[in-house]
Amino acid sequence: MPPPNRYRRQEVLPEIGVEGQRKLAGARAVVVGLGALGSMSSDLLARAGVGHLRLVDRDVVELTNLQRQLLYSERDVDRPKAEAAAERLRSVNSEIEIEPVSKDVHSATVREILRDADVVVDGTDNLETRFLINEAAIESNIPFVYGGAIATYGMAFAIRPPVTACFRCFNPKAPPPGSLPTCETAGIFNAASAMVGAIQAGEALRLLLGETPSGALYVVDGWRPDVQKIRIARRADCPTCVLGEREYLGARRAQVLASLCGSDTISLDPVHRGTIDMEAVANRLAVLGSTRRAGGVLVAEVEGHRLTIFPDGRALIRGVKDEAEARGVYAKYVGT
Ligand SMILES: [Zn+2]
């Protein structure tokens, strides 16, 4: 007797069918950011049978994430999110290929992260990364499904260049840093982020099946459930999808530092990456404080700082007040 077909309930949908299921099996999706939105969207894409999923996140799991980030449990705290998410989704669907990527998305890494993708789903927490992904997606003609959630509301918007408006058409000017609320200051209602993540997954699946997105921004009220549609027009003077400027892709930075949403944590990505000798670093740091392994990373508590060191040399540095201090801590304890 042949094994039962796990996708039967999906194949009977006239919108998908056996042919659509085959398409999904051959498709490649990238989910960038595995927080509340990325947890929901990647879970649905894995269950729906998207054949190849690349799961990208630069951070590790924290206890305060568990309120809304559906892929993680208490035992994942301190592990890289990409690694914990991959393990969870492999246990859900072993028939698809899952590729965890514990990297920071910036101008030097974004093309590799989006390579060969048929769709990219936004689970990031900041505008700069979204502008960057938007530029890279337009350059390579990859559909991009934007999503954002804060407090009790959220938004989702499926972009297929050049048919729909792009993310920059919708946000022509980047607001100055610090002018937007963050999930730390405004909080987040888990039902709202789950709704947005589900809309994004649906839009990604429809794109993979060859459907054209509506061109509308979905604005979700997660408290008194409601979804509104707002038409976003393509701007005749859009710097990204019309004029072809590559403001974010073209940025060259010596060392990439990024503050993580709502914490005293900075992610430091050295220019020259390479596999570092974790044993040697652990031994060196053990003299100064405590060290332990959590999945593929090394966690060290030294002199009031917590360092999470990834095998490629990237580090999350907690307990620093600014980027200069983060650079100093990295140089002192990891070395450049
Ligand atoms: Zn545009």
Walkthrough of the structure:
With 336 residues, the protein is of the alpha/beta class. The chain has 2 domains: 8-231, Rossmann fold (3-Layer(aba) Sandwich); 256-333, TATA-Binding Protein (2-Layer Sandwich), CATH 3.30.310.10. The protein has 11 helices and 14 strands. It has helices at residues 8-11, 17-25, 36-48, 81-92, 110-114, 127-139, 167-170, 183-186, 190-208, 278-286, 323-333, and strands at 28-32, 52-56, 97-101, 119-122, 144-150, 153-159, 216-221, 226-231, 256-259, 265-269, 290-294, 297-302, 305-309, 315-318. It has an 8-stranded mixed beta sheet with strand order 3-2-1-4-5-6-7-8, sandwiched between helices. Strands 9-10-14-13-12-11 form a 6-stranded antiparallel beta sheet, with helices on one face. Strand 1 (28-32), helix 3 and strand 2 (52-56) form a beta-alpha-beta unit. Helix 3 (36-48) crosses helix 9. It starts with 7 loop residues before the first helix and ends with a helix. The model has no long low-confidence stretch (mean pLDDT 91). Zinc ion is lined by residues 165-166, 168-169, 235, 238, 240-241. Zinc ion (ZN) is lined by residues 165-166, 168-169, 235, 238, 240-241.
What does the secondary structure layout of this molecule look like, with pairings?
Elements: H1 8-11, H2 17-25, E1 28-32, H3 36-48, E2 52-56, H4 81-92, E3 97-101, H5 110-114, E4 119-122, H6 127-139, E5 144-150, E6 153-159, H7 167-170, H8 183-186, H9 190-208, E7 216-221, E8 226-231, E9 256-259, E10 265-269, H10 278-286, E11 290-294, E12 297-302, E13 305-309, E14 315-318, H11 323-333
Parallel strand pairs: 1-2, 1-4, 2-3, 4-5
Antiparallel strand pairs: 5-6, 6-7, 7-8, 9-10, 10-14, 11-12, 12-13, 13-14
Helix pairs in contact: 3-9
Zinc ion is lined by residues 165-166, 168-169, 235, 238, 240-241.
